[in-house]
Amino acid sequence: MQSHSIPPQLETYFERASVAIALAACGDDNPLLRVNAAFEELTGYTSADVVGRNCRMLQRDADNGEARERIHAFLASDTQDSVRTPIVNFHKDGHPFVNLLFMSKLRNQSGRCEFIFASQFDVSRSQPELLAAYDRELARTLLDLKPKLADTGIVIEGTLMTIANTASTVAQAKLRLAELDG
């Protein structure tokens, strides 16, 4: 695996972020380089469990065809800024949850993808108002991260799109979880 030096500003940001976030390398199967405490709390996996592995390990054997297609298209595209999709993941203890995954490419000044920034939120057991609060926190996270990365020459691409119908997203996630539990 190629060595990736994470800028100190980004390391500090990961230590302080309140939303679940992960950082992966671009290319070479996109291994995880860093996760924060909120990620560990959400998934039950420690940093030692996941660093060096592709985050698809969280999917286990779930049928995530549509989500996988969206993620693969994002990773393969030079023009797609970000992707946001619900995807079935599993806690370390084996319990499923529906993760509202947001991913964005962090590029250097020459335009080459250096890292993939990802945020996770469990929509399967949450209320619409919690999802709206998460959206606000993620938007604030991205706004806070941009100037911190500017000094390093790394740019976070895209802006966070607001979910058109949060109640529907939560209801759909609960239905999917009921199918998995049943």
From TrEMBL:
Pfam family, one: PAS_9
InterPro entries recorded: PAS (IPR000014), PAS-like_dom_sf (IPR035965)
Family annotation (PROSITE patterns): PAS
Coiled-coil annotated spans: none
Keyword Flavoprotein: yes
Alphabetized CDD domains for the sequence: PAS
Keywords, ordered alphabetically: Chromophore, Flavoprotein, FMN
Domain (PAS) ranges: 29-78
UniProt-listed Gene3D superfamilies: PAS domain (3.30.450.20)
Protein's name in the database: PAS domain S-box-containing protein
Naturally occurring in which organism (per UniProt): Aureimonas phyllosphaerae
